[in-house]
Write a structure and sequence with these properties.
heterodimer, A: 178 residues, mainly beta, Methylamine Dehydrogenase, Chain H, B: 622 residues, 29 helices, 3 strands
Chain lengths: 178, 622
C-alpha cells in the first residue's frame, strides 16, 4: 500500500489545488496551495485564515519507485480576510482566492524570496446592497474560475462577474443570474 | 457550597479604578464582560465613568494556541474511539484496551510537548520562548500525572509489577540521564570525566544497574587499583533480584531472595570493603536503601517522587499499592526537609498515591487553566468504572459536568465548535439540551457553513433548531432581496407563514415588473407547493403562464378557472386574474373552450354583481 504522509496544520482547509505545470512538462506536480476557513471571530483577531503554498518534492528524497518521500514543507503563507470559499491557480505565479467577505484577491508568488503578496483585489465583487448605500452588506463569493487573462466569479448575491487581470473594474457583470 | 481552599487570584483591569467606582460584570459562554459604572462608593456619583472601555476577559487562552489545537483534535478522535469500545468486553481484554487508550492520550501530549519545545528553542523573541517553555512544563506535568494515574488506576498494577511501572515512570520523566550519558561516554576518558560518578550514581538511583555495571568496568580498566572492588560492586549489581516481566517466581520467593541479597550488601558495609572508594561506598549505602545516603543525592534525584521510587526500590520492592501513601507522604516531607512547602503538583501526586481520585481531579481543575485534562481523564476513569455515580447538585455526574464545561469552551472558538458537538453527544443527561442551545448561536456567515450546521442538526433530529436556523437564513435572504433563496429556506424550515410572506413578495414583484424571478425554483416546487396556500397559488399561477406560453389554451383556461373558484387567490390578485382571462375569452376555439368561456363570464359577472350589491348596501346604510 502506498505511504500516506499526514501533517497537522492547525487550520481547517477548505480548498487545495495543484500548481499547474508548464506546458509540455513531463514532471509530476510538486507544489500545491491551500486555503483555510472558519478561523476568525469578530471579537478577537487571535487567528485568521491563510493561503499557504506547500512543496513536496525535490529535497533529494526519492524512494525506489522514483516517487517523493517525506513530509510536505510550507513554502510561504499570507493572511486572508474571510473564509477561502474557492481557490484557483491563474497561472504559474498567481493564485485567485474567493472570500466569504465578497472580495476576490489575486496573490502573487515570488519564488526568489518565497513570499506571497497581494497582486490585485476586487473588494466589492459581491454584495447584497451596494457600496454606495448606507446599509452596505457584502455577500460571500462562492466560486471562481480562471482562463488567463479572464476570471469569472459567482456569489450568494446571484451575481456573475467577469474580471480581467490588471483591470480595476469588472469587465462585465450579470445581476440576478439565478 | 464548599469553602474555598485557597485565595482566588486577582486580575487587575487596566484603566478601571475599582476603589473609586463600582464595577459591573456579566458572564458569557466562555468569557466575562466587565466595565466601570458611574456608581461611586463614597462620594456623589459622577455623570460618566472614568474608564470608557468595556473589557472582555477570557481565562482560557489555550484554545487559541496553534500547537494545542493538535492536542484537542487528536484527543477528540481518541475520545470517540473510547466511547465506542464494546461495552460487552470485560476483564483482561477490556483492561488492555483501556490502557491502550490511556497510552494514546499520553503520546498525543508528548507529541505536543515535543513540538512546543522545538518552537520554544526556535523563538526569536525571548519572552515568547519563555512562554512556550512554561507551556512545555505544564504539558510535562500533565503527562506525569496522567502516567501515574494510568499505573495506579487503570493498569491497577499489583505489588511487584507496581514497582517496575513506577521505575519506568520516573525514568521517563527525569531525563537528564541521557544527555549526561552522552556527555560522559562521548569524552576521551569517560571514567576521568567530571560527571562520571554523577552518571553512575543516577543510573543506580534509577535502578539501571546493567548500565551502571558497564560504567564501572570502564573505571576498572582505567584504574587497575580499584578493579577488585569495582568487580565486587558489579557482581552485587548483577545479582540484585528483580521481578522481570516473564518471570514465574512468586512474590514471596522474590522477597526471600531480595532479603538474602540485602543482607549480603550489609555484610560488605560492615566489613568496610569499599572504604577505599567513597564513591563506591555511597553507592552501596544507596543500594541498601539508606535514607541519609539517598537524601545526599537530592540534586541528582531532583524531586521527591524520584526519591520515593528509589527508596522503595532499595528498601521495599514488593510494596503493596495500599501502602504507597505512607511512603509518599514521608518521602515528600523528608525531601522538602521543611525548607519549602509543597507545590500544587506535589499535592496532586500525593492524592493519586492515596488513591483519592476525586481529590486528584479537583486539584487538577484548580491548577490548570483549561478543562481538557480533567475532562478526558475523568471520562477514561469513568469507563474504568472507578467513579461513584453520586450526583453533583446541578443534576449531572462529575464526568458529564467536566465534559460539558470542556465542550462549551470549544464552542467559544470559531473553528473548534465542530469537535464540541461530538462531546455533547456523549453526555446523556444534559448533552442534547446544551447542544441545542449552543448550535443556534454559531455565527453563520456563508450558506456553506449553514449547511454544515444544518446537517449536524438533521443527523440528530433536532427539528426545532433546523427550523430556527432556516428561518434566520430566510429572513436574511428576504432582507437582501434574494427571494428565491428565501423561499427555499422557508420550505426547508417548513415555515408556512414565512412561505406566504415570500410568495406575496414574488407576486408583488410580478405585478411591478410583469415577469417572474427564480423561475427554476418556482417551476420545480413539487409537493413543497402545499406548504402554504399562497405558495400553492404562486406555483399554479406560474403554471398557468407556462401553459399559456406553450399555447395550451384549454388547459390554461381551466387552470385559471380553478384558481378563481378556489379561495387561494389573494384579493389583490383578482383583477389580474380577470385581466388574464380576457385574451382567453377573446379566442375563437372549439366547444370546450366555449363552455369554459361561458363559465368564466358567468363567474366574473356574478362577482361583479356581488360587489355591486355590497356597494349599494353600504351606501344605502350610510
Amino acid at each position: 500500500m502506498e505511504e500516506i504522509y499526514a501533517k497537522f496544520v492547525s487550520q481547517k482547509i477548505s480548498k487545495t489545488r495543484w500548481r499547474p505545470l508548464p506546458p509540455g512538462s513531463l514532471q509530476t506536480a510538486e507544489t500545491f496551495a491551500t486555503g483555510s476557513w472558519d478561523n476568525e471571530t469578530k471579537l478577537s483577531v487571535l487567528q485568521e485564515n491563510y493561503i499557504s503554498l506547500w512543496s513536496i518534492g525535490d529535497f533529494g528524497n526519492l524512494d525506489s519507485d522514483g516517487g517523493f518521500e517525506g513530509d510536505h514543507q510550507l513554502l510561504c503563507d499570507i493572511r486572508h480576510h474571510g473564509d477561502v470559499m474557492d481557490l484557483q491557480f491563474f497561472d504559474q505565479e498567481r493564485i485567485v482566492a474567493a472570500s466569504s467577505t465578497g472580495c476576490v484577491t489575486v496573490f502573487l508568488h515570488h519564488p526568489n524570496n518565497q513570499t506571497l503578496s497581494v497582486n490585485q483585489q476586487w473588494t466589492t465583487a459581491h454584495y447584497h446592497t451596494g457600496p454606495g448605500s448606507p446599509s452596505y452588506s457584502s455577500a460571500p463569493c462562492t466560486g471562481v474560475v480562471c482562463n488567463n487573462p479572464e476570471i469569472v466569479t459567482v456569489g450568494e448575491d446571484g451575481r456573475i462577474n467577469l474580471f480581467r487581470a490588471d483591470h480595476k473594474e469588472a469587465v462585465r457583470t450579470i445581476d440576478n443570474a439565478d | 457550597m464548599e469553602e474555598l481552599d485557597g485565595e482566588p487570584t486577582v486580575t487587575l483591569i487596566p484603566g478601571v479604578n475599582s476603589k473609586k467606582n463600582q464595577m459591573y460584570f456579566d458572564w458569557g459562554p466562555g468569557e466575562m464582560l466587565v466595565c466601570e459604572t458611574s456608581f461611586n462608593k463614597k462620594e456623589k456619583s459622577e455623570m460618566v465613568p472614568s474608564c470608557p472601555f468595556i473589557y472582555i476577559i477570557r481565562k482560557d487562552v489555550d484554545v487559541y494556541s496553534q500547537i494545542l489545537r493538535k492536542l484537542f483534535n487528536e484527543s477528540h478522535g481518541i475520545f470517540l474511539g473510547l466511547q465506542r469500545i464494546d461495552e460487552e468486553l470485560t476483564g483482561k481484554s477490556r483492561k488492555s484496551q483501556l490502557v491502550r487508550v490511556s497510552k494514546n492520550y499520553r503520546s498525543v501530549i508528548r507529541a505536543c510537548m515535543e513540538e512546543m519545545h522545538q518552537v520554544a528553542i526556535a523563538a526569536k523573541d525571548p519572552a515568547n520562548g519563555r512562554q512556550f517553555s512554561s507551556q512545555v512544563s505544564i504539558l510535562s506535568a500533565m503527562e506525569l500525572i496522567w502516567n501515574l494515574c494510568e499505573i495506579l488506576f487503570i493498569e491497577v498494577a499489583p505489588a511487584g509489577p507496581l514497582l517496575l511501572h513506577l521505575l519506568d515512570w520516573v525514568r521517563l520523566h527525569v531525563c537528564e540521564v541521557d544527555s549526561l550519558s552522552a556527555d560522559v561516554l562521548g569524552s576521551e576518558n569517560p571514567s576521568k570525566h567530571d560527571s562520571f560518578w554523577n552518571l553512575v550514581t543516577i543510573l543506580v538511583l534509577q535502578g539501571r544497574l546493567d548500565e551502571a555495571r558497564q560504567m564501572l568496568s570502564k573505571e576498572a580498566d582505567a584504574s587497575p587499583a580499584s578493579a577488585g572492588i569495582c568487580r565486587i560492586m558489579g557482581d552485587l549489581m548483577r545479582t540484585m533480584p528483580i521481578l522481570s516481566p516473564g518471570n514465574t517466581q512468586t512474590l514471596t520467593e522474590l522477597e526471600l531472595k531480595w532479603q538474602h541479597w540485602h543482607e549480603e550488601c550489609e555484610r560488605y558495609l560492615q566489613d568496610s570493603t569499599f572504604a577505599t572508594s567513597p564513591h563506591l561506598e555511597s553507592l552501596l549505602k544507596i543500594m541498601l536503601g539508606d535514607e541519609a545516603a539517598l537524601l545526599e543525592q537530592k540534586e541528582l534525584l531532583s524531586n521527591w517522587y524520584h526519591f520515593l521510587v528509589t527508596r522503595l526500590l532499595y528498601s521495599n520492592p514488593t510494596v503493596k499499592p495500599i501502602d504507597l501513601h505512607y511512603y509518599a507522604q514521608s518521602s515528600l516531607d523528608l525531601f522538602l526537609g521543611g525548607e519549602s512547602s509543597p507545590e500544587p503538583l506535589d499535592n496532586i501526586l500525593l492524592a493519586a498515591f492515596e488513591f483519592d481520585i476525586h481529590q486528584v481531579i479537583k486539584e487538577c481543575s484548580i491548577a490548570l487553566s483549561n478543562w481538557w485534562f480533567v475532562a478526558h481523564l475523568t471520562d477514561l476513569l469513568d469507563h474504568c468504572k472507578l467513579l461513584q455515580s453520586h450526583n453533583l447538585y446541578f443534576g449531572s455526574n462529575m464526568r458529564e459536568f467536566l465534559l460539558l464545561e470542556y465542550a462549551s469552551g470549544l464552542f467559544a472558538h470559531p473553528s473548534l465548535w465542530q469537535l464540541g458537538v461530538d462531546y455533547f453527544d456523549y453526555c446523556p443527561e444534559l448533552g442534547r439540551v446544551s447542544l441545542e442551545l449552543h448550535i443556534e448561536r454559531i455565527p453563520l456567515n456563508t450558506e456553506q457553513k449553514a449547511l454544515k450546521v444544518l446537517r449536524i442538526c438533521e443527523q440528530r433530529q433536532m427539528t426545532e433548531q433546523v427550523r430556527s436556523i432556516c428561518k434566520i437564513l430566510a429572513m436574511k435572504a428576504v432582507r437582501n432581496n434574494r427571494l428565491g433563496s428565501a423561499l427555499s429556506w422557508s420550505i426547508r424550515a417548513k415555515d408556512a407563514a414565512f412561505a406566504t410572506l415570500v410568495s406575496d413578495r414574488f407576486l408583488r414583484d410580478y405585478c411591478e415588473r410583469g415577469c417572474f424571478s427564480d423561475l427554476d425554483l418556482i417551476d420545480n416546487l413539487g409537493p413543497a407547493m402545499m406548504l402554504s396556500d399562497r405558495l400553492t397559488f404562486l406555483g399554479k399561477y406560474r403554471e398557468f403562464h407556462r401553459m399559456y406560453g406553450e399555447k395550451r389554451f384549454a388547459d390554461a383556461a381551466s387552470l385559471l378557472l380553478s384558481l378563481m373558484t378556489s379561495r387561494i387567490a389573494p384579493r389583490s390578485f383578482w383583477m389580474t386574474l380577470l385581466t388574464d382571462a380576457l385574451p382567453l375569452l377573446e379566442q375563437k376555439q372549439d366547444d370546450d373552450i366555449e363552455t369554459t368561456k361561458v363559465e368564466m363570464l358567468r363567474l366574473s359577472l356574478a362577482r361583479n354583481l356581488a360587489r355591486a350589491i355590497i356597494r349599494e348596501g353600504s351606501l344605502e346604510g350610510s
